[in-house]
Each structure stands twice: as C-alpha cells, then as structure tokens.
Amino acid sequence: MKPQQLVLFGAPLQGPPKERSAEVPTHHEDKRPASSSGRLMLKELPTDEQPRERLEKYGPSALATSELIEVVISSNHSLGREVLAKCESLRRLWNMPTAELAEIPGIGPVKAAQIKAALELGRRSLVDSGDDKPTVRSPADAANLVMPEMQDLDAEEVWVLLLDTRNHVLHVDRLYKGSLNTNMVRVGEVYQEAVKRRAAAIIVCHNHPSTDPTPSPEDVKVTELIKQAGDILDIELLDHVIIGRQRFVSLKERGLGF
C-alpha cells in the first residue's frame, strides 16, 4: 500500500495553476500605468477582471493563489505575487512567522495577520465538527491538523493528540524532538499529559524529515509498546500517524503495532 496523498485547502500546494479552463477568463498583461509604488492597483483593473468580482462570478477555485491572497488583504494587483515570490510556496507561507511576513513591503502587521488567519481558517475547515474543538474521525483528520507544521520540520518530533470520548481534540502535546526509537521513548511521558487532562484516547504523530512516511521496524515496535501501556491505563491508542511531505501513513490502517 502506498503512502496516502494529502491535499490541503482543496488543492495540492503547488502554487498558482499554469492553465485555466476555457470558460474562466484568464488575466492578460495590463498596459495601464502602475501606481507610484510600481504596483498595479486593483481599482485600475477592469471590473470584471478584479479578483473579488471573478471570485463572486466563478468561485474561489477560478483564482490563482496570488489572487486569493489579494482578496484576503484587499490590496493591489501584484502584492499577492510578491508575497508568493518571497515565500516560494503556500507551505512556506504557512510556516513563516507573522512578524517576518509583516516585513514584506506593502504587507505590515495587519495584512500579515489577515493572511495567517485565512490560512488557519482553511486548516480548521478540514476537521470542523460544528463547535470550537476540532474532531478527528479518520487518520486524514489527524494528518490535516499537524501536517502544515510537521512536514517541514528539520528533525523528527513526536506530537500526541489528546481526545475526549467524542474524539474532540482537547490538546496537542508536543512531546519531544529526536528519532523515534525504544531507547528514547518513555511510554509514561506519552501518556502523562493525557492522564492529567483525563483524555479518553490519544493519537501519536511523528514526522519523517526524509519526506517518506513509510514506517520503519522501530516505528512499529514503539507503537506496540505505546498501545500496551494505553491498555493498562485505559486510554486508547487510536492510531500512530507518520507524516511525510503532503503524505502520511496510518499504522492502524496497515495493522502495524495494533
């Protein structure tokens, strides 16, 4: 079984689409003089070419990533492209500190906060259960919660999702950094926060910086130890999810360690 492909925010994080469908009008190069900042202002575009109007007419999927950013920050026509050029990808934009994003000319603290809020809303929509607490109903839900951050970590980290009896996420415990192996993992530490917060179940997540989420024999062995401890504590280990680059593997689905 191949690692699962995860799509975030409705489309793979690969930047603006190179082509659009024939029925959706595309941008052409505008010959109007730019503003004093050198950027073309949205109001200088024909009304039917402005991102907000195109979004209303054709839906958000018709807009390039840079145009979606422009709609979020209600700014000029080229600032969205400048933000993407600076960040290189949505993934890097997600992980960029808000203060650093604010330093991009034309952004500032307010627009940086707007962009970060929009990205977070997109992430939460993937696991929204109708209340303030995310709900994990599947391995994909768990992966969606942690992947935006975990897939770009330089070193392995172990995170533990603490869940109540309705699978609402009570807390995300960032346990430690380092390779996942039986010599390092102290099973008591895995459940320490779960006991304190009276969690009914946990999901263990860790990343592979190599970007390949294929489980190692050590991953399976550690999973067995964690599950055995959970059975004793009456706190169920629902899954162990390994995070790669836009991919993940559920050890529970593969029957490894369970």
Topology:
Layout: E1 4-5, H1 51-58, H2 65-73, H3 79-87, H4 90-95, H5 98-102, H6 108-125, H7 139-150, E2 157-163, E3 169-177, H8 187-196, E4 201-207, H9 217-233, E5 236-243, E6 247-250, H10 251-254
Parallel strand pairs: 4-5
Antiparallel strand pairs: 1-6, 2-3, 2-4, 5-6
Short note summarizing the structure:
The protein has ten helices and six strands. By secondary structure, the protein is α+β, with helices and mostly antiparallel strands. It folds into two domains: 106 residues, 5' to 3' exonuclease, C-terminal subdomain (DNA polymerase, domain 1, Orthogonal Bundle); 116 residues, Cytidine Deaminase, domain 2, CATH 3.40.140.
Description of the molecule:
There is one protein chain. The chain is α+β, with helices and mostly antiparallel strands. The protein has 2 domains: 4-17 and 34-125, 5' to 3' exonuclease, C-terminal subdomain (DNA polymerase, domain 1, Orthogonal Bundle), CATH 1.10.150; 139-254, 3-Layer(aba) Sandwich (Cytidine Deaminase, domain 2). The protein is built from 10 helices and 6 strands; from the N terminus they run βαααααααββαβαββα. A 6-stranded mixed beta sheet has the order 1-6-5-4-2-3, sandwiched between helices.
Estimate the mean pLDDT confidence: 78
pLDDT < 50 runs, ≥5 residues: 5-37
Secondary-structure element series: EHHHHHHHEEHEHEEH
Give the N-to-C terminal Cα separation: 17 Å
Supply the CATH class of the largest domain. Alpha Beta
Radius of gyration: 22 Å
Per the CATH scheme, the topology name of the largest domain is Cytidine Deaminase, domain 2
Biggest sheet: strands side by side, in what order? 1-6-5-4-2-3
How many helical elements?
10
> What is the number of E strands?
6
CATH superfamily of the largest domain: Cytidine Deaminase, domain 2
Please estimate the helix content. 25-40%
Q: How would a crystallographer describe the biggest sheet? A: 6 strands, mixed
Query: What is the 3D form?
Result: elongated
Which class do the helix and strand fractions yield? alpha+beta
